[in-house]
Amino acid sequence: MNTLAVRSTVELDELITAVRGAVAREAGWRDTASYVAEALHEHLPPPELLTAGPLVGERGTSSSHRLHVEPDGSFSMVAIVWRPGALTRVHDHVTWCVFGVLAGVEHEDLYELSEDGTTLTEVGSKANRTGEVSGFAPPGDIHRVRNISDDTAISLHIYGTDLRRVGSSVRRFYDLPTEATK
């Protein structure tokens, strides 16, 4: 993950302050994700927050750029640039996550794990568009993210942990057979 220089820190500073306030409410993960989503919705920065360098890349790839890690380790902010055709593996997370789309469309496929842990069922799909904010908390956060458009998408993700310390927001990758919802 790259550390990213941003064009303007005013918007980012306002967002960091708002997220600090949301996290300081010391609620459970689902409520914290909701509070952080409210803060991100109110302070969603423009895509011009990023310099031009991170936007360049190969079709089918994505790149993550660390924007901020709270000194006490309570949250990290990452900008993800999704180039056309980019696709993640099916995964879940180590903690709550909130994301807002700064540009483009981030497609998300949602899954449930069978009780015996051997199969995934696709339970939904949604297109998260510019300006939209969403969040979730484990358990029940199994998903895959992709960019199926011809335009680059940019999203800002806030995770409830110090990503420098844990290395990744992903808890587990799921390479299991997938069934469609019946």
TrEMBL record:
<keyword id="KW-0223">Dioxygenase</keyword>
<dbReference type="GO" id="GO:0008198">
    <property type="term" value="F:ferrous iron binding"/>
</dbReference>
<feature type="binding site">
    <location>
        <position position="143"/>
    </location>
    <ligand>
        <name>Fe cation</name>
    </ligand>
</feature>
<comment type="similarity">
    <text>Belongs to the cysteine dioxygenase family.</text>
</comment>
<keyword id="KW-0883">Thioether bond</keyword>
<keyword id="KW-0560">Oxidoreductase</keyword>
<keyword id="KW-0408">Iron</keyword>
<dbReference type="InterPro" id="IPR010300">
    <property type="entry name" value="CDO_1"/>
</dbReference>
<keyword id="KW-0479">Metal-binding</keyword>
<feature type="binding site">
    <location>
        <position position="93"/>
    </location>
    <ligand>
        <name>Fe cation</name>
    </ligand>
</feature>
<dbReference type="GO" id="GO:0016702">
    <property type="term" value="F:oxidoreductase activity, acting on single donors with incorporation of molecular oxygen, incorporation of two atoms of oxygen"/>
</dbReference>
<dbReference type="InterPro" id="IPR014710">
    <property type="entry name" value="RmlC-like_jellyroll"/>
</dbReference>
<dbReference type="Pfam" id="PF05995">
    <property type="entry name" value="CDO_I"/>
</dbReference>
<protein>
    <submittedName>
        <fullName>Cysteine dioxygenase</fullName>
    </submittedName>
</protein>
<dbReference type="InterPro" id="IPR011051">
    <property type="entry name" value="RmlC_Cupin_sf"/>
</dbReference>
<feature type="cross-link" description="3'-(S-cysteinyl)-tyrosine (Cys-Tyr)">
    <location>
        <begin position="97"/>
        <end position="159"/>
    </location>
</feature>
<feature type="binding site">
    <location>
        <position position="91"/>
    </location>
    <ligand>
        <name>Fe cation</name>
    </ligand>
</feature>
